[in-house]
Amino acid sequence: MIAMLKDIVNKQIAELKKLWDNKAELLFQLLNLAMIVFSALMIWKGLMFLTKSESPVVVVLSGSMEPAFQRGDILFLNNQENPIRIGEIVVFKIKDRDIPIVHRVLKVHENAEGEVELLTKGDNNRIDDRSLYAPGQLWLKREDILGRAVGTLRYVGMVTIMLNDYPMLKYVLVGLMGLFVLTNKEG
Amino acid sequence: MHTVWVRLNAVVFFSLSVLLTLALLASFTSHPSILGDNGNPSSPLSPSIKTLKLNSLRSLRPHGSVDRALFSLDISADFNPAFHWNVKQLFVFICAEFSTPSNPLNQVVLWDKIIEAKDVDKIIDEKNSIIKYSLISQGTDLRGVDVTLKMYWDTMPITSTMSMGVGDVVGKFTLPNDYVSKAEKGKVDDKTKRRKRKD
């Protein structure tokens, strides 16, 4: 096993050296790498445009919505203009907090101007979310909402959670992927 | 050269595509619009709601700057029809809708229940059950307000998009014109309407 790994590493180094000597080839492979990165960026920005949400895909980080969503599920959001109504699952952001929260709308109060004030609660929590909101904040407004959850994929978000828990893994993974794209001859 | 890596890459990529295709197919074949259940109460997949009405008012009192009402409900519904192979759980809730001078639309959840696919008992039958969350307005404006009770169910699939349905059996009542404390039992003008389900 170790011999095999050593062999692979040696081959990679040889490839890199060869690449360094052949500048045209190096440029080509770098462009290849850039194309992959930019395609991913384009897909993300395209989704942002279609869903009108600043983060169209989020990962569930807590168990407060169990059994509907578990830690590691990913959610697809939609933030089209239509009004938020009772019982919908929304993702919202609280001032001075980095991580958005996924919870269900428990109360809707809409005034004559069409402005809504919302109160949310996690299905698995015993009380509503007032204690999670910013100090003195009683209600969520429309602009606090990043989007409503429309669909879910199980387990996929586990990768993100791992990358978050072990930041080193992120660099190792990205580095490895970059290396293989660079040295891959088939592209 | 890197046969191990190329092969590993191919296998991982292929299995991911297969998984994604299967998930999409599952989602497509059990989508509410394919199965004919768009939250439409006359669809065979919608639960049968028999009773949804006010039983008795316990109190209607001001709490600081807001009014708060507490009462009990009679609920009876069978949620078996709403389950098919791609349903993980239903989130069933009862919502009170009312309008006040400052807010034309108020929606407040009074009671909720999660029914999972693995639960044997998918029938709700509760008599005189006190609401889980009391009915609170944004001002002291609940006296004499007409309240409409509606039952919603949010279908959570295993893999697909979520969908919400609302029952056509609605409970209606009017809160009294004066505050009612727990001691004296308030009389409530019960206008619960029950429409017959057409199948």
TrEMBL record, chain A:
<dbReference type="Pfam" id="PF00717">
    <property type="entry name" value="Peptidase_S24"/>
</dbReference>
<keyword id="KW-0378">Hydrolase</keyword>
<keyword id="KW-0645">Protease</keyword>
<feature type="domain" description="Peptidase S24/S26A/S26B/S26C">
    <location>
        <begin position="46"/>
        <end position="134"/>
    </location>
</feature>
<keyword id="KW-1133">Transmembrane helix</keyword>
<keyword id="KW-0256">Endoplasmic reticulum</keyword>
<keyword id="KW-0812">Transmembrane</keyword>
<dbReference type="GO" id="GO:0005787">
    <property type="term" value="C:signal peptidase complex"/>
</dbReference>
<keyword id="KW-0472">Membrane</keyword>
<dbReference type="GO" id="GO:0009003">
    <property type="term" value="F:signal peptidase activity"/>
</dbReference>
<keyword id="KW-0735">Signal-anchor</keyword>
<dbReference type="InterPro" id="IPR036286">
    <property type="entry name" value="LexA/Signal_pep-like_sf"/>
</dbReference>
<dbReference type="InterPro" id="IPR019533">
    <property type="entry name" value="Peptidase_S26"/>
</dbReference>
<comment type="similarity">
    <text>Belongs to the peptidase S26B family.</text>
</comment>
<dbReference type="InterPro" id="IPR001733">
    <property type="entry name" value="Peptidase_S26B"/>
</dbReference>
<dbReference type="GO" id="GO:0004252">
    <property type="term" value="F:serine-type endopeptidase activity"/>
</dbReference>
<feature type="transmembrane region" description="Helical">
    <location>
        <begin position="26"/>
        <end position="44"/>
    </location>
</feature>
<comment type="function">
    <text>Catalytic component of the signal peptidase complex (SPC) which catalyzes the cleavage of N-terminal signal sequences from nascent proteins as they are translocated into the lumen of the endoplasmic reticulum. Specifically cleaves N-terminal signal peptides that contain a hydrophobic alpha-helix (h-region) shorter than 18-20 amino acids.</text>
</comment>
<dbReference type="InterPro" id="IPR019758">
    <property type="entry name" value="Pept_S26A_signal_pept_1_CS"/>
</dbReference>
<dbReference type="GO" id="GO:0006465">
    <property type="term" value="P:signal peptide processing"/>
</dbReference>
<protein>
    <recommendedName>
        <fullName>Signal peptidase complex catalytic subunit SEC11</fullName>
        <ecNumber>3.4.21.89</ecNumber>
    </recommendedName>
</protein>
<dbReference type="InterPro" id="IPR015927">
    <property type="entry name" value="Peptidase_S24_S26A/B/C"/>
</dbReference>
Automatic annotation (TrEMBL), chain B:
<keyword id="KW-0472">Membrane</keyword>
<dbReference type="GO" id="GO:0045047">
    <property type="term" value="P:protein targeting to ER"/>
</dbReference>
<dbReference type="Pfam" id="PF04573">
    <property type="entry name" value="SPC22"/>
</dbReference>
<keyword id="KW-0256">Endoplasmic reticulum</keyword>
<dbReference type="GO" id="GO:0006465">
    <property type="term" value="P:signal peptide processing"/>
</dbReference>
<keyword id="KW-1133">Transmembrane helix</keyword>
<dbReference type="GO" id="GO:0005787">
    <property type="term" value="C:signal peptidase complex"/>
</dbReference>
<keyword id="KW-0812">Transmembrane</keyword>
<protein>
    <recommendedName>
        <fullName>Signal peptidase complex subunit 3</fullName>
    </recommendedName>
</protein>
<keyword id="KW-0735">Signal-anchor</keyword>
<comment type="similarity">
    <text>Belongs to the SPCS3 family.</text>
</comment>
<dbReference type="InterPro" id="IPR007653">
    <property type="entry name" value="SPC3"/>
</dbReference>
